[in-house]
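sry for the spam today, last one i promise. struct tokens for design, 161 residues
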């Protein structure tokens, strides 16, 4: 008898785990790696399904408007499966100030266990990585159509300071 388990690509990374490094381009094709922040600054990874979708657009506008509140604790990155060109148009049309990373090959999304196979997209999730390079907090939104809890997020970010 075998026991079925969820594949690691759909099982969220655990708190305390070493955060998988990645190399992803932003909307200007600049490559970013997580490891460049180790020992220097905490990192907030906001995984979201798709550019231009209603909930994702509302969230990204909120992140951008409150960017200074989040950046006092961590480097902020939005990550989705969209292309660098889609991110560029999305940032421009919504006046976004934070960095959006393109994970078209779903490598980071799968490494963090946040792949949503039904849509071939990322789950809506937040991963906070401490200066030590370890996962400090993970929150996956159970309903992909609902926004994150911003107060809970800010509270968790403050713990990284």
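last one done:
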């Amino acid at each position: 008898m075998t026991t079925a388990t969820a594949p690691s690509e759909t099982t969220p990374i655990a708190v305390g785990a070493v955060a998988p490094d990645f190399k992803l381009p932003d909307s200007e094709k600049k490559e970013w790696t997580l490891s460049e922040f180790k020992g220097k600054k905490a990192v907030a990874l906001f995984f979201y399904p798709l550019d231009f979708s209603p909930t994702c657009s509302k969230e990204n506008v909120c992140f951008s408007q409150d960017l200074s509140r989040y950046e006092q604790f961590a480097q902020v990155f939005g990550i989705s499966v969209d292309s660098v060109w889609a991110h560029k148009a999305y940032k421009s049309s919504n006046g976004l100030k934070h960095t959006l990373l393109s994970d078209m090959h779903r490598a980071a999304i799968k490494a963090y266990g946040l792949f949503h196979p039904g849509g071939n997209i990322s789950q809506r999730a937040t991963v906070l990585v401490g200066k030590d390079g370890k996962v400090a907090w993970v929150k996956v939104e159970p309903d992909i159509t609902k926004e994150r809890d911003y107060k809970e997020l800010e509270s968790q970010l403050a713990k990284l300071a």
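Confidence is low (pLDDT under 50) at residues 1-5. ok im logging off now
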